[in-house]
């Protein structure tokens, strides 16, 4: 086993412990729904942007040109993922609005809360630029697709592409391009704070899974189909297609593979609820893929040669 | 001691950075009141219990904990001393009724969880963890019985022992059980709990910063007496604690410094919440917490410098 794979296994155990801790805290009623929502806001609006700025700015500007293929491959990866999601929705004969929700939860991954913390843990020295590039591509695709898929009469919400995550990714890239390498206690504090993101995000995921409950899955067994499609078929297809192009290094190929096998995006459950779409399906997919990914990520990564 | 001074300066800069993050995030509306409250509860109900649990469980054995009994008693004595001085200074300031009670507890109880424990771990990497374990036992006993009792405005008030069942005291208890059972703390579960607990420092300070952001300082103009809490809590109290325990033969120099470090931290945040619950003088409580949380950034290095040189 490679060093990276062993780190991945260790991270999966850590993820599981934190998810259980978060779920227990919710079950013991230590936190209300408002508290959990509030904690999610601080993760997405404060911690993730700080993590992105401090991590991306550590990147080497001479390598930015080298990232263009990765940027295009990120879009390609998401396009493949959405295409498979669309086809599988048709094959499963899902009706609207469930089919659109299926496409969202099967086609889009949880980059911020699972993907970036994983990349930072496995590739601490080389993931900065990849995260920057992926964050920009991911925000563009997610905020174009989610409003359309979650709302039958919805339109792409381009305004939401400009959000704390994309702004911070741009700031990080700007600092990197200007070759500013801050090394003082304020910056180091922000860096350390940003790197604690996995603890906060996974505790939140555990709380969220616990409050939504497994009942939503038991009533909708079709939602289980998302597991093999999102977590196995899609990442393997993406790996074989992009790898065959031969444009990415082994390390970047591994990074894009990890991003493709993250569990379903979380924001679609919130948007689906507000628009009156099939939010139960979205929630069930989010819960099942998050739990199943703890097993599928190491298995699939081992299969493709991490 | 020079190294203590440089460590405290570093810690103050870390504190100021995180307070700034919380303050700015709230002021530019990245986070709202719901978020601030959520973060506060995650700290007090999950992260801090994790920090205490891992510190107690890795205490080194029950015999090591028992050897800290004199220190444990001195922590309770130091708290009693500060409560008495809080009462006395309140009377000298001619405070009455609920305000006097609030003054007493804000002067008598420090913000151990959010500021004190991270400071202990940073200043005393060797014994800080053990001190944290002992402190969490003593503080769990006193803070959650005495503070509600003093703030309670009911004439038939009594000590509510059920308040002792907080997540932090439960964390302490679980840590003690693990310690007695000699459970290995090197496994991934305990290491994850420890690492998650260590993040409490950042979230606690972010919470305080955001809390400062949402409170107004305008009321201080109407009640300038609140300004007196800064020199009393942040300068007078730690110096009195240092001078009164310095002479005790059964305490080590490090333990005296630990007592001083905890007593120089700002007022206990929970006082403003409890004051509200008991319909006491909430304004005095929240402004004292606010002011001491800001002013401690200046006074803490000053106190460390004083005890380093005298």
Short account of what is shown:
By secondary structure, chain A is mainly α.
Helices and strands in order:
The complex is a heterodimer of chains A (306) and B (310).
Chain A: H1 3-27, H2 33-56, H3 68-91, H4 98-107, H5 111-122, H6 128-150, H7 164-177, H8 185-195, H9 197-212, H10 215-218, H11 226-245, H12 250-260, H13 267-275, H14 279-304
Chain B: H1 2-27, H2 33-57, H3 62-66, H4 69-92, H5 97-108, H6 112-123, H7 128-151, H8 167-180, H9 188-198, H10 200-214, H11 229-245, H12 253-263, H13 270-277, H14 282-309
Helix pairs in contact in B: 1-10, 1-14, 2-7, 2-8, 2-9, 2-10, 4-5, 4-7, 4-11, 5-7, 5-11, 5-14, 6-7, 6-10, 6-12, 7-8, 11-12, 11-14, 13-14
Description of the molecule:
The complex is a heterodimer of chains A (306) and B (310). Chain A contains 14 helices and no strands. Chain A has helices at 3-27, 33-56, 68-91, 98-107, 111-122, 128-150, 164-177, 185-195, 197-212, 215-218, 226-245, 250-260, 267-275, 279-304. Chain B contains 14 helices and no strands. Chain B has helices spanning 2-27, 33-57, 62-66, 69-92, 97-108, 112-123, 128-151, 167-180, 188-198, 200-214, 229-245, 253-263, 270-277, 282-309. The relative contact order of chain B is 0.19. The longest helix of chain B has 28 residues, at 282-309. Chain B has 310 residues and is mostly helical. Classes of the chains: A mainly alpha (306), B mainly alpha (310).
